[in-house]
Write a structure and sequence with these properties.
Radius of gyration: 13 Å
Number of strands: 0
Keywords: Membrane, Transmembrane, Transmembrane helix
Number of domains: 1
Shape: globular
Length: about 80
């Protein structure tokens, strides 16, 4: 729907704002985020192959909430 499209775009830009606006001071944290994104995109690809757009929204919202430390609450709310 139109709301899902706007919400995914909002989370998309918010994610890149959070990641690139402030530099990551610790290299291990940066590698952890990169590995985490790869794992999540791999899992959600198999979990939501039947709806591609919903899959994208899951990944973006998960990235956005991971950078703020709210992972499980938002992830499980979509199931």
């Amino acid at each position: 729907s139109l709301f899902e499209f706007k919400y995914s775009i909002y989370c998309f830009f918010k994610f890149f704002l959070i990641i690139f606006s402030r530099p990551l001071k610790v290299n291990s944290k940066k590698n952890c985020i990169q590995n985490f994104c790869i794992k999540i995109s791999f899992i959600s690809y198999f979990a939501f192959t039947w709806i591609y757009f919903f899959n994208v929204r899951i990944i973006l919202v998960f990235f956005f909430n991971y950078s703020q430390g709210h992972i499980l609450i938002y992830f499980y709310s979509f199931f």
